[in-house]
Design brief:
This is ARAD1B09394p. Pfam families: Acetyltransf_1. One of its GO terms (molecular function) is acyltransferase activity, transferring groups other than amino-acyl groups. The chain is an alpha+beta fold. It contains 4 helices and 7 strands. A 7-stranded mixed sheet has the order 1-2-3-4-5-7-6, sandwiched between helices. Strand 4, helix 3 and strand 5 form a beta-alpha-beta unit.
Length: 153
């Protein structure tokens, strides 16, 4: 399977918003994804295949924050593409895309109850941080995690 990574454009934002909301327990508005199109510090990538360029397999969205840190706000993979390393590939592609920005750490937040996501991020080298009480409303608290990046000069 030949993967194709694309940077989010206005024309694709509605489809990516729908994809993320269908594949995560939290819904994301079109406006949420448009910030990654118009904010110069925002980055949203999504992946399809050469064989089926209209079917989204996964997406990752985040932004470059202050102090050399990037935040990943969304990482979603289609159920049919899970357990094949696509989440890891998306995170690496995101990291590679922002590496010239002087980023020294990537932060994420996931639901405290999502043991699978927590284990996934730990396998990628993220360390458990603090709890964000009520971050997901009725879905519970958030767990902040961080991964230090090694900068090569």
């Amino acid at each position: 399977m030949d993967l194709v990574f694309k940077r989010l454009k206005f024309a694709d934002a509605e489809a990516i918003s729908h994809f993320a909301s269908q594949n995560l327990p939290v819904s994301y508005s079109l406006g949420f994804f448009l910030q990654f199109v118009y904010n110069r510090d925002g980055l949203c990538l999504y992946v399809t295949t050469k064989q089926d360029p209209d079917t989204v397999l996964g997406t990752i969205a985040g932004q470059i924050g202050p102090g050399g840190r990037a935040q990943v706000h969304v990482l979603a993979v289609a159920p049919t593409a899970r357990r094949n390393g696509l989440g890891t590939i998306l995170m690496k592609e995101f990291t590679n895309t922002i590496e010239d920005e002087g980023i020294n750490a990537i932060e994420i937040q996931t639901r405290c109850q999502d043991a699978g996501a927590i284990a996934f991020y730990q396998r990628l080298g993220f360390e458990i941080g603090d709890i964000a009480r009520g971050a997901y409303g009725a879905l519970g608290d958030g767990l902040r995690m961080c991964k230090a990046l090694s900068l090569v000069s």
